[in-house]
Amino acid sequence: MSVSVVKFNVKDRPEFAKELRRRVNAYFKENNIAKQGNIHMQIKTVFMVSLYTIPFIFVLSGIFTSFWPILAMFVLMGFGLAGIGLSVMHDANHGSYSKNKRVNDTLGWILSYVGGYHINWRIQHNVLHHSFTNVEGHDEDIQTGVMRASPSQERKPIHRFQAFYITFFYGLLTFYWIVGKDIDQLLRYDKMGLYEAQGVTFGKALFHIIATKILYLAGTLVLPIYILEIPWWQTVIAFFIMHFIGGLILALIFQPAHVIEETEFFLPDDEGSVENNWTIHQLLTTANFANGARAFSWFVGGLNYQVEHHLFPNICHVHYRKIAPIVEQTAKEYGIPYYNHKTFGKALLSHYKLLHDLGTGAYDRKKAKREAEQEMKVQNVEKVASLAS
């Protein structure tokens, strides 16, 4: 896979992108607001880190001597893990948390605190996913290996059941992250030359990954096993459940933003080109959900405003609710779709329905029917035109 061959159509209504940027920039200028985080972001950071850290301190303190209260602490840590990923690390690694690069870089490292390697995350998310959203062969977020997430991927017999089994694999997301994903990405990203752009060598990345894994597993799993009075296997179960909760939350927030019935998927042509302007492409491949749910939006780091995030990843998520009406109105004026599910439940339903259709072949049959109907319309128009002449 190469990241240099996808070309977007710069001639596809460039005036839309220009006007959208002008209006959003005007909002910040007129209200004298910085695009980065504010006191609300700082409060949220303290909350999310505390949600992960304080229960773990209770675990290590020895005040709990039975499995169930210890498990309860690890459950809270699972929510804290997801909160750190969605609401803190995410903005920092996009460079939108603060105007100060050092602050962003420092908080970007917080991913190591929960077992990941932030450079790999930046490459997968910032470089590949944001640049080539829903582009087959380039966006790694739809290259899961265990499900058919786009119509251009091969449909295998097991995919017929993917809408039923995928939730379990979603729960393994962060667990796989800490035991295998970073090493797999290390080898692939080095071959692709992606570390160079991040200013990191293979050796440096390898050292950071190994050191991070050893310290994380030693501190979060081995130490509790050694300290706690409960059997070691109960600690392992609690640790696994923590990661299952965190992974499930992360997957169920990100997947309904792109892999749903409304969004489109693209396969570059022989010259590596896709048909749309990059800004329009983001609107065609991204969707919002539950924009009216303020508490929910607060916890998930504003990522229910995925459209705004993809268009303006350099803007901190605390501002998305305010700029969303600007984006929606501008898209409407230019006749460009703005996908938005009213509730999170409806977004999830659309996601699972798409997985079912992709897995059973229903999506392919519907697509073939639409193409046949469109071809018939074209032929009829040409026939009428021929008779008229």
Can you walk me through this structure?
The chain has one domain. The protein is 65% helix and 2% strand. The chain is built from 17 helices and two strands. The model has no long low-confidence stretch (mean pLDDT 95).
Please write out the topology.
Blueprint: H1 14-30, H2 39-61, H3 67-94, H4 101-108, H5 110-113, H6 118-129, H7 162-171, H8 173-191, H9 194-197, H10 202-227, H11 232-254, H12 278-285, E1 287-289, H13 294-299, H14 306-311, H15 320-333, E2 339-341, H16 344-360, H17 362-388
Parallel strand pairs: 1-2
- Global morphology: globular
Enumerate the strands of the largest sheet in spatial order, edge to edge or round the barrel.
1-2
Largest sheet properties? 2 strands, parallel
What sequence of helices (H) and strands (E) makes up the elements?
HHHHHHHHHHHHEHHHEHH
Radius of gyration: 23 Å
How many domain modules? 1
Q: Which residue ranges are poorly predicted, with pLDDT under 50 across at least 5 consecutive positions? A: none
Backbone structural class: mainly alpha
Instruction: Report the end-to-end length measured between terminal Cα atoms.
Output: 50 Å
> What fraction of residues sit in β-strands?
under 5%
Offer a few descriptive terms.
globular; 389 residues; two-stranded parallel ribbon; 2% strand; mainly alpha; 17 helices; 2 strands
